[in-house]
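Notes from the pairing session

We agreed to fold both candidates in a single pass and log them together. This is the raw record for the first candidate, unedited. Please don't reformat it; downstream parsing expects exactly this layout.

Candidate A
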Amino acid sequence: MALDKKLLDLVTRKEKARLAGGERRIAAQHAKGKYTARERVEKILDAGSFEEFDMFVTHRCGDFDMQKNQPSTDGVITGYGTIQGRLVFVFSQDFTIFGGSLSKAYSEKIVKVMEMAAKVGAPLIGINDSGGARIQEGVDSLAGYADIFLRNVLYSGVVPQISLILGPCAGGAVYSPAITDFVLMVEKTSYMFLTGPKVVKQVTQEEVTTEQLGGSGVHASKSGVAHLVYADEDACFEGLRRLFAFLPQNNAAIPPPLECSDPLERLDARLNEIVPDHPSKPYDMKEIIGEIVDHHDFFEIQPQYAANIITGFARLNGKPVGVVANQPKVMAGVLDNAASIKAARFVRFCDAFNIPLVVFEDVPGFMPGTSQEYNGIIRNGAKLLYAFAEATVPKVTVIVRKAYGGAYCVMSSKHIRGDVNLAWPSAEIAVMGPDGAVEIIYSEELKKAEDPGRRKDELKERYRDLFANPYSAARKGYIDDVIEPAGTRLRLVKALEMLAAKRDVNPAKKHGNIPL
């Protein structure tokens, strides 16, 4: 009988904990189009797989009469489960309890699952929906945030870390998601900023709404903080699961392969015609990527930010690859500050987690102008150069059309340890394009010509025959082969199979000093 009574007490306590902030607050959460913290965990993980930690933890604050209200869980759900049968750890902030605000006890719960994830080598998923630091706890709350930030940093590159922003994430709280590998947001219900609209107005006199300051659209297209944005939480959870399918468990594991039913030897004749004859005419690089990868399935990352460069995941022969590609359809595919930073971060993630890199190149150079120079194009372009040069995963580059100047060097060229470098017959590899080159090389001759326009056209053709083609570089071994575009898929698959056992190392050091 005594045991029955204790079991009944256990059940009662757990039921009360699952009610979180109560039915009224749960209803308010639902009214905003948002799930509760517990519902989110259940929807993300495989059915029945969640094992919870620290359900009975409460805060320890005795100031401001806080001891009179000590709900179980203290506003965050933590534990582990599986996605697609693979182990993951998760924490989910509960807005129905103290607005999801963070206390020291709350932070300790998060730190526990972070440390466990690192110990066993499993990804960590953080669901953010919080009003920020719990003011009543003062510096204890700030210490709790810093404890989390430290582990975000220590475990960066050890296990994949993914942040879902499904409500407010403001003040110092934004730094934890910012350190993680991927940030997913939802339209109209999630936002991130360091200082809110009221503070902005007080300090700068600027009138701005929450959405304008830190909504999903801002971070998807302007700041680059958000990697993926979805219309609602259900779509976000599907996106998370799709992303997860490409990622390994940790930095010592290989990315999860799938059975491939897409013929490796299929020829895509459309690729032979896709690059326009005129060198300045745009085309969509995504069409090339889609034709080549398994089942034409390309999962783009940061599609709205720095659209002049494309980053994302795909599979070749069932094995995940990271794709980096210039986009001639946007700004002619030129590299600017935002594109360089976006691609560099993606390259470093892939390298950290053993995901081979496939590069499709059509780049006329770096963006000129005072705005770019003043905002650090030298430093930011160097980040991409650094990322590719440092990466030790298999790297295969296909030069589709333009590969000019320093941008040619930066885009995983043979000279910075590109493993296999291929080119299409349409490739133009040179210091600069024919227009600029002729103006410099033949400036005196053009001044004396009877018909400068006609002579310039003739000289451009001569220059193009000498340099603006793949064969000059191929003769020097900088290009491993010039290939028929239609057969690119099989060539990439073979190259990656050959490189599967690649071992490359960097000099022993504490860490490099990337030009941040």
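Candidate B (folded immediately after A)
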Amino acid sequence: MADLPEPLPNAIFSMAQLAAMIELLPVGFAAHDGERLVLVNEAMCELSGYSRQQLLGMNFWELFAPQMRDMLQERNRARLAGADLPARYEAELITAQGEERFVDLFVTLLKVDGRIISLGRYLNTTERKLAEVHQKQTRQALRQIIDSNPVPTFVIDQNHIVTHWNKACEQVLGIKAVDVVGTRGHQKGFYDTERSTMADLIVDGSIETSIKELYGNKRLSRSQLIAGAYQAEDFFPNLSATGTWLYFVAAPLTDPDGEIVGAVETLQDVTEQRMTEYALMESKSELEHLVAARGEQLREATHELEQDITRRQEAEAELLERFNELSALNTELQQAQQQLVQSEKLASIGQLAAGVAHEINNPIGFVQSNLGSLERYFEQIMALLAGYQEGEVMLGGLIKDHEGGAALLEKMKQLKKDAELDYLKEDIPDLLKESRDGIVRVKQIVADLKDFSRVDSTQQWEWVDLRTGLSSTLNIVNNEIKYRADVVKEYGELPAIKCLPSQLNQVFMNLLVNAAQATPEGTHGTITIRCGTEAAGVWVEVADTGAGITEENLKRIFDPFFTTKPIGKGTGLGLSLSYGIVQKHGGKIEVRSEVGVGTTFRISLPIEPPEASDAADSGANAVPPAPTF
């Protein structure tokens, strides 16, 4: 290493003393002589993933990401040459396991035992860095949602600085986003003087004490849908030539710990509604005066007008409720999407099953009836043919001497031979029996389709035996399973439980199809279905001998839209919807899996779950963990 320009501080301690000092520190320390590492502490070993023996003598620059090595070496050379460079900066380490870690690096040059070394302190900032990246991505996603929202919306952070200001807000308030984002100037869009908006009051935590003073006579009310949100209505004379009435809703934005980190406020121009309301009120007053003068006829007209006002108020209330829901967009968007997908999927399956059952039942009915008639006709024809055969023997000797008699007998024998009458007498009954068995099989499939869909049950809670639903579902998905796996049934005694049968059938179908698809191509596996009772209710297991699920994927299998199948082969919604359905029934779904051995899903359900409304609240929109057993 080149000599440093003087003066260079000489360390007052030896290399051994320096090593002892940094060893006690909880932060990583390492020293190098320009090329090789000469000193490291235990915290640096833990940070880098290398042992002390591996680090000492190692090329120092290989610890860093390739894209940083040239820059760091250049800085080191410049610092040795006496350049005044920052001693602290951010760097990226590559661990022994190949992982990237961000560190806060502080460098100082020392002369110890006559040697010039560069001593660095390495503070692990990976979690903070990743959190910053995640926060940035979250803000970008929120910005896209807000910018595409047709409702005027702006967002401020805990410092009252505007972070989002969408195009609809630009149009209503007349202020461009570039002029207000990053500032505290959002108040200028509403008031000529400095005054807090409702969003400011929420961020300050003064909403309870100041809200009535500022908005007490402006239709102020708490939101019935969102905790901590308020709604009000006010007139703003500076927003247009004649002024504008705005209805606005402000709601807090919180971090995972429930702390307020900002607020979102949405606006709605209700000038036309207010003007209409005032006009209607004036018309009503005039009509009331006319009623007194003109009698019953005008009273009827007033009554109709009051009904119209009521309808308008109801429509306004519904509109206000919809805008309240928009302020909860961050938390409700995914839930609404899951409910929509589940409803559409269950509805399509029910319609398909009901349609197939209806279309098949009619032709099956008359085919079965015709087979019965055909059997009776065949018995009559056989009786007739038996009579003919007896007549042939008895009359053969009488008519063969008549003119043409011998030829007639020969013709009858040839016809019997050509028709293979004896074979037909044996084969036709077998064909009729096979046809009747086939009709019975089709009728069973139709019955299973009806039981699977339960479209005629109006989706009400019923007492059912789950084994019936399992058998129906197996019949429906048989074509999906039979070429890939054998099915083994190990049914125990089950009591009837109260449930929504078609929804649980949907869960069984998802698990059975997934079990079949888990069997690798070119192999034939086994799917085992078990069921039984436990203290709290009943349980059902679906086990396969497929490829299994890795530990990494096992934690995410119940996440919406997560799938390991190729693009176009799966939506990633089956297990997420199944989780919601089981939660809705007050039960739980668990999974255990071993790669290369197989996977087992276990569903536990109570005999009689909570009421439908309570069950729906607790499970329909739950965000599932990764349950295992």
